[in-house]
Amino acid sequence: MCKRIIDIVFSLLGLLLAAPLMLLITLVIRIESPGNIIFSQKRLGLKGKHFLVHKFRKFPSDWGNAGPGVTMANDARMTRVGKFIERTKLDELPQLWNILLGQMSFVGPRPESLKYADLFQEQFTEVLDHVPGIFGPNQISFRNESELYPSDQDPEIFYRTVLFPKKAKQDLKYFAKANCFTDLVLIFQGVWVSLIGVANWQRLINLHSAIILLDIMVIEFAWSASNWLRFGSNINEAYISVLITGAWLFPLILIPAMIILGSYRHPVRYFSLHDAARLIKIVSFCLMVSYFIIMFLYRYSSIILLPITLIIALPFMIVPRILYRERWLRSRYSSSKKRQKIPVLFYGAGSRGTALISLLERGFPRIEIIGFIDDEELIRGRFISKYKMIGCERDLDTLYTKHKFEQLWVTFIPTKGKYRRLKNWCESHNVTLIVPFTMEPFAQIR
Tell me, what DSSP letter sits at residue 341? Predict the structure, then answer.
């Protein structure tokens, strides 16, 4: 009776408080993809009775039942909104209605899909003696279950043979001695774990602790510098309050937003122009939101502080990332200096040529790129992708004498006559001729 009273009170309170958030999620799901907002699926309830569990839809509505019955990290089936609500567990808010109807409880084993009904055998049949719930010991221990699936194993086999037995045993151990007090404790633990588990903190600290600390220092420096540029040393007591508020409010809003929105998604050594653009958008938006809060609290605050802070902060965030990436790349290539280099000459400076150059210089440190040759006279002597245009086909003998290149890469499809000339020349000089776009798989997609 106590458990049911808790369920009714908390579900009504939850539906009331979460109504604006649920409305927002409904709107963004509708904007991103057509179809039903709520995904309903038959699950196993008390005593194995079937009922419809409700969630916000994470997959496209036309996906159907294709794919595994479990959701994995970065599941390709998920929409962009779906990835966010799955990570934050907001997709489970509609289950408050299941609780209110008595089909679920706040604390209980997770309701399993019908396709796993055969797993409830022998001692595991006792799991179905309990009303399924949102929170439970497994929801805390396996908060980020989607990350546990090995990349080289079938996810359904792994769930059946490894995860399900562990979860069932843990459920039976807890519910054998559960009471209202332990359930209340578990509810608060579950809410806390749901919030704190949005990020993989161990991975985040291991990979990004230095850059996060740098970002915090940059925010504080930019905010302090903008106030100094605006007021100099004559800042009055009123604006000191604005300065102090911004000093704790900016990092409090910005850093979690950067974590959730993907600014620390991968190591800094892979920082790209796409990452820089995303960083600019996230930082600009979050600083604007933060400063609007400051302006609401302090109506006399100066609007000019916001653009000054942005102008100072963004370069100091982006440039160190670029420098670190370049330093890492140089360290990779310096480690390969002791090995013998393979000098390569490129014939053709078009878009495919520059793409091949980018591939080789980033991923193959043993390659030593001599430069380009091309039949186009207008670009003779110019630089393409930082490599000089050093001649044309007639200069091969001279260039070979000077550079002793071992491979000649042709980045276009040569005519039969040109290919025959190049092949004969390469054979006579013991140079390997490579025409990659006539090879598989390029021949199919060029």
Answer: P
